[in-house]
C-alpha cells in the first residue's frame, strides 16, 4: 500500500516501545431511558442486545495486536474498581452489581478478556454519562507494557420523536490474515422502537470524504478499501432529511506500513492545566519489525465527525500536531462511544493526514 494511516492513544513507554490501542464495544454504548414508562432502549437485559467491551492493544514498535497478560486486566466503572464473584458477575460498585460480567472475546486477531453488560444501567437515578476503563498489560519487546484505556457510555432520556442510528462492524472491525472482509450493518431507532429498513435510506461515507460512497443497507470493506484505518459515517435519511448520523471504525492489519505516534500529554483532555493539550509526532514503520521508514513528511487537515473542516489554534507541522481542549470543544461534536482519532494517508513520500473529531 502507498497509503499509511493510524490512530493515536497514550501508553506506557519502555525501551522505545509502548502499548497502544483502545477498548472497543461490539455495540454502541448508548442507552436511553423513558421516565414515564421506565423503559430502556436498547434493553441490555436481553442477550441479543448486550454489548461486549474488549481491548485491541498493539506493540507500538511492531503494530501487531497482542494478547493481554493473563490476570493483569482490571475494569473500572466511573473510575471505581469493579469486583466480580467466582462466576464473573459484578458485585461492586452497587450501580453495576449483577449488570456486568467478565467473558472472553476474539478481537479479530486474538482472544482477550472482555466485559459484557448484562443489565440496564439507565434509570431515573442514573441519567448521566458514564465511563468504563480497562487497565492491563501486554508482553512486547521483552517487557510487560502497561496500558489504560477508557470508553464513554452515554445515558440519556429519550424522546419518542427522536431518531438514533447505530453501526455494527463484524469481526471487531478488523481485517487480518483470518478475516478478509468486514461487513458494517446498521439500525435506526425512533424513540424506543426499531424503524423498518423500508422506511429510510442511507448514505455511507469514507471519512473525511464528504462524497457518498454507497447507498446500500450495509457495506462490506476489504483491505484495498482501507489505508490501515478507516472511519465510516452513515447518514440515515427520511423524506430527504438526515434524521441521524452514526460512525464506525474498520482497521486493516495486513498493511506493510503503519503510523507510529509518540505523545507529549494525555489523549483525554481537560479544561486546564497539564492535561489540557496533547502533542503528537508521527513516524512510518514496517508492520511486524517496527523498522522506521524515513523520507516521509506530513500534511495535516482537521475534520469534524459531520465531515466539515475546522482549524485548531496551533498550525500542524510537517512532523506532527498539537490539539488543545479548546480545539476539541470548539469542534462542537458530541458522539457516544467515539474515539478522537488521527488518520494519515501517504502519497509517495508525502503524507496527507486528517484528524477526525
Task: Describe this protein's structure.
With 357 residues, this protein is an all-beta fold. It has a domain at 257-356. The protein is 2% helix and 49% strand. It has 1 helix and 28 strands. It has one helix at residues 325-330, and strands at residues 13-14, 17-25, 30-34, 39-41, 52-59, 74-77, 80-81, 83-84, 90-92, 100-106, 111-117, 130-140, 143-157, 163-169, 174-175, 182-190, 193-194, 201-206, 219-221, 229-238, 241-252, 257-264, 277-286, 292-293, 297-303, 320-324, 341-347, 350-356. The strands form 7 sheets. It has a 6-stranded mixed β-sheet with strand order 4-3-13-12-6-7, with no helix packed on it. It has a 5-stranded antiparallel β-sheet with strand order 1-2-5-11-10, with no helix packed on it. The model is unreliable at 5-15 and 333-357 (pLDDT under 50).
| C-alpha Rg (nearest Å) | 20 Å
In whole angstroms, the N-to-C terminal distance is 25 Å
Instruction: Provide the succession of SSEs.
Output: EEEEEEEEEEEEEEEEEEEEEEEEEEHEE
Shape: globular
Tally of helical runs:
1
Briefly note the structural class of the backbone. mainly beta
Q: Which sheet architecture does the biggest sheet show? A: 6 strands, mixed
Amino acid at each position: 500500500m502507498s497509503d499509511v494511516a493510524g490512530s493515536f492513544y497514550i501508553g506506557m513507554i519502555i525501551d522505545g516501545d509502548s502499548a497502544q490501542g483502545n477498548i472497543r464495544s461490539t455495540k454502541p454504548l448508548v442507552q436511553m431511558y423513558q421516565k414515564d414508562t421506565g423503559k430502556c432502549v436498547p434493553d441490555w437485559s436481553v442477550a441479543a442486545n448486550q454489548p461486549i467491551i474488549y481491548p485491541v492493544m498493539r506493540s507500538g514498535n511492531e503494530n501487531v495486536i497482542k494478547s493481554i497478560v493473563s490476570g493483569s486486566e482490571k475494569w473500572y466503572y466511573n473510575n471505581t474498581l469493579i469486583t466480580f464473584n467466582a462466576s464473573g458477575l459484578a458485585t461492586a460498585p452497587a450501580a453495576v452489581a449483577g449488570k456486568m460480567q467478565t467473558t472472553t472475546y476474539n478481537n479479530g486477531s486474538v482472544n482477550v478478556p472482555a466485559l459484557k453488560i448484562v443489565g440496564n444501567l439507565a434509570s431515573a437515578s442514573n441519567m448521566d454519562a458514564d465511563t468504563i476503563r480497562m487497565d492491563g498489560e501486554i508482553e512486547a519487546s521483552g517487557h510487560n507494557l502497561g496500558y489504560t484505556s477508557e470508553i464513554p457510555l452515554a445515558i440519556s432520556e429519550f424522546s419518542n420523536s427522536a431518531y438514533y442510528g447505530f453501526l455494527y462492524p463484524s469481526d471487531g472491525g478488523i481485517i487480518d490474515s483470518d478475516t478478509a472482509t468486514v461487513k458494517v450493518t446498521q439500525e435506526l431507532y425512533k424513540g424506543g422502537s426499531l424503524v423498518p429498513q423500508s422506511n429510510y435510506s442511507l448514505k455511507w461515507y469514507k471519512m473525511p470524504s464528504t462524497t457518498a460512497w454507497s447507498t446500500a443497507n450495509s457495506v462490506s470493506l476489504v483491505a484495498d478499501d482501507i489505508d490501515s484505518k478507516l472511519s465510516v459515517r452513515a447518514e440515515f435519511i427520511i423524506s430527504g432529511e438526515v434524521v441521524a448520523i452514526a460512525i464506525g471504525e474498520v482497521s486493516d492489519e495486513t498493511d506493510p506500513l503503519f503510523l507510529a505516534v509518540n505523545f507529549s500529554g494525555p489523549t483525554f483532555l481537560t479544561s486546564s492545566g497539564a492535561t489540557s493539550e496533547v502533542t503528537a509526532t508521527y513516524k512510518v514503520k514496517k508492520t511486524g519489525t517496527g523498522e522506521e521508514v524515513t523520507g516521509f513528511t506530513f500534511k495535516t487537515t482537521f475534520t469534524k465527525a459531520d465531515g466539515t473542516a475546522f482549524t485548531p489554534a496551533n498550525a500542524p507541522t510537517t512532523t506532527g500536531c498539537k490539539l488543545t481542549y479548546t480545539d476539541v470543544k470548539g469542534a462542537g461534536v458530541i458522539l457516544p462511544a467515539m474515539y478522537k482519532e488521527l488518520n494519515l494517508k501517504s502519497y509517495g513520500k508525502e503524507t496527507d493526514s486528517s484528524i477526525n473529531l
